[in-house]
Amino acid sequence: MSDTVAVEVSNVYKVFGKKQREVVKRLQAGASRGELTALGTAAVIDASFEVKKGEIFVVMGLSGSGKSTLIRMLNGLLEPTAGNVTVYGSPVSGVPSKQLREVRRTKISMVFQHFALLPHRTVLDNAAYGLEVQGVSLDERRKRAQDVVDRVGLSGWEDKLPGELSGGMQQRVGLARALASDTDVLLMDEAFSALDPLIRREMQEQLVELQQELGKTIIFITHDLNEAMFLGDRIAVMRDGRIVQVGTPDEILTDPANDYVAQFVQDVDRARVLTAAGVMEPARAVVSGSAGPRAALRTMRDMQTSAAFVVGNGRKLLGVVHDRDVLKHVKAGNRDLMTIVRNDPATVGPDQYLVDLFEPAAESHLPVAVVDERGRLLGAIPRVTLLAALANVPTTTGENQVIETPATVAVEVITQTLRETAGMTDEVDTKTRVHSDDVEAVREGSFN
Amino acid sequence: MDIRIPLGQWVEDFVDVLTDVAQPFFDVLRAIFLGAHDLINLVFQSPPFWVIILAVAALGFLARGWKLALGVLVGFTLILAVDQWENAMDTLSLVLVASIIAVIISVPLGILGARFDNASRILKPILDFLQTMPALVYLIPALILFRVGVVPGIVATIVFALAPGVRLTELGIRGVDKEVVEAGHAFGSSPFRILRQIQLPLAMPSIMAGVNQVIMLSLSMVVIAGMVGAGGLGGDVVASLNRLDIGLGFEAGLSVVILAIVLDRLTASLGTRKPRVKKADAVPSVNAEASVSQKDEQLVAASAS
Ligand SMILES: Nc1ncnc2c1ncn2[C@@H]1O[C@H](COP(=O)(O)OP(=O)(O)OP(=O)(O)O)[C@@H](O)[C@H]1O
Ligand SMILES: [Mg+2]
């Protein structure tokens, strides 16, 4: 995903009925949709959002919430009553039809709920339709269409008519047609809703795969929450013509903007939607590998935990230390923490779904560490947090010592030990302070 | 009370004005229709009868199979046997000319009606009028404008047969799956391209049903056209009526029926003919992981057998 804006929608209204302008005016003045039903149906009200290049943007909402109306304004199949739509800077609303056709040919294509294939044309010619309209020569467009047909897994079927294909295969043709026309933006209005669940899942996975390969910008409409959560980089939730929330699947789930969204998302399979990065806590008990054992001991005492993550340069996770080990170490006067680091913390990647976390969480008595692909510690997920996230109760309880593994050595013993050994490593203490600032920075970084 | 709107007078005046002002125009039309009719008539009359019979039988075989071919052989031989061959060919020419012109007029009108609701609203009552007005009435202005002969018959036939062509074209185009038309728009097609590549092909069964109706109505009009000297089977029917010649009337009438059945079967098959499907010579290999679904597997199995 880049920062280039692919599709920009600003303050778009669509009203069906006789007095469209008046309805818009009254809506802008604050009237509710329900008051104006006599004048017209406000299908989309004041919609504004941007879709970035390479993003999968999902629009979700109940039947009649205005999703289809909205997506049809993005390629000019419907003209907004008010507001503007641009695709890569080219206006789509309020332009002559010739110019609009040019935008459709070069910038934005569409996949339809009921496939909308040309029944009298073969699979290959259907796939080549967009290219044909663009004026590409027969040989060239057949060749390019063939590539796409192969890519969507329909090799060998190119001479069949759509009627001879199953639903899933027909929609692959629909997808091939949109991909072959080589526009950056793909609109998909409930593209998988007419398919049965197994094929549907398959198509979703294939779409994500294709998107990653080709980097298309996809605007996908669905009323299926799980589909939205699976596909969407960001999701817009619509209700009665208004967009009530735009956010990542995690944000929508963990921080619904209102009761409507909350109710909407309550049935979702959270374990398959929420990611480690979405629920992790800042790792509190963290010590630097280069800090001495005393610093580690002090941190664990302050946190009242029995173990701490040890990080090296660039916050790379090295392992864990346990309070008993460290205590012995300090008493023995040993200054190198690294010799007692155990190399066994359970780690997961930030994008892993919670379903993948149960096993490591069950097997480890420590919080599960979340590390990025370079092994850097991003945060930690204690079991309590995992359960709370699944049960959808807030986990931000502030001072949450509970979530750390309780100390196995009494605080007094540690304090005593530290006092006894004081003086031998004061300079290390200051070093630790510096490092804990670094750690603070990591926490913030990982939450942006 | 003696309030009478002189509507008939007005129409008469109107036709008078037409003849005064536009007679050259109608003369040109007359020449064109006459030329077309003579040309087609030449095609049917000049070859020996058995060439025509075999040609039509072959058409029947292609369109419907051997049953229709056999029907054509028997029927046309019967026409020959009752000595109506020349008349039948005359009538066939007249029907074909009138039908072709009626289709040329009605299909674009139907397209217009499908595209613009206003056009549809205007067309509808006109079509109702044309269809319900007794067919004989058309003969009067046609006679005045085109003088006696084949042409007023053709014109009256066209006017009478127009309506179903327009209606079924409009119906067919309006009935095309909206999403498919939308797909055409979504990929940047012009309205004309959508008409040509999507709407007309998909509306074709309905349009062909309209063509079939046009031809049938034309045929039913030829008897009436015979009254104005259009000749053909209609001429003999009218003659038999004047002379109360039951035998001649039956023979000519039967020939009309045979022509009607043959034309109907031939044209009806145009609309219902399915797009030919190429037989797959081999089972297409579908990407293994792409087609794990049962449905797809069934399809593979089906196309293999
Ligand atoms: N052409 C139209 N004329 C009048 N009203 C319309 C038209 N199209 C849509 N509407 C109305 O606009 C509202 C939104 O419809 P829309 O089709 O956008 O909903 P949707 O979210 O796509 O629903 P679904 O999930 O059923 O497809 C509905 O109340 C609908 O009745
Ligand atoms: Mg919809």
TrEMBL record, chain A:
Keywords: Amino-acid transport, ATP-binding, CBS domain, Nucleotide-binding, Transport. InterPro entries: AAA+_ATPase, ABC_osmolyte_uptake_ATP-bind, ABC_transporter-like_ATP-bd, ABC_transporter-like_CS, CBS_dom, CBS_dom_sf, Gly-betaine_transp_ATP-bd, P-loop_NTPase. One of its GO terms (molecular function) is ATP binding. Residues 280-337 form the CBS domain. GO terms for cellular component: membrane. GO terms for biological process: amino acid transport; glycine betaine transport; response to osmotic stress. Residues 7-265 form the ABC transporter domain. It comes from the Bacteria. It holds the Pfam family CBS. Belongs to the ABC transporter superfamily. PANTHER family: GLYCINE BETAINE/PROLINE BETAINE TRANSPORT SYSTEM ATP-BINDING PROTEIN PROV (PTHR43869), GLYCINE BETAINE_PROLINE BETAINE TRANSPORT SYSTEM ATP-BINDING PROTEIN PROV (PTHR43869:SF1). This is Glycine betaine/proline transport system ATP-binding protein.
From TrEMBL, chain B:
The chain crosses the membrane at residues 49-82, 94-116, 136-163, 214-234, 246-266. Keywords: Cell membrane, Membrane, Transmembrane, Transmembrane helix, Transport. It is a multi-pass membrane protein. GO terms for molecular function: amine transmembrane transporter activity; carnitine transmembrane transporter activity. Pfam families: BPD_transp_1. One of its GO terms (cellular component) is ATP-binding cassette (ABC) transporter complex. InterPro entries: MetI-like, MetI-like_sf. One of its GO terms (biological process) is choline transport. Residues 88-267 form the ABC transmembrane type-1 domain. Belongs to the binding-protein-dependent transport system permease family. It is found in: Cell membrane; Membrane. This is Glycine betaine/proline transport system permease protein/glycine betaine/proline transport system substrate-binding protein. Its main location: membrane. It comes from Mycetocola miduiensis.
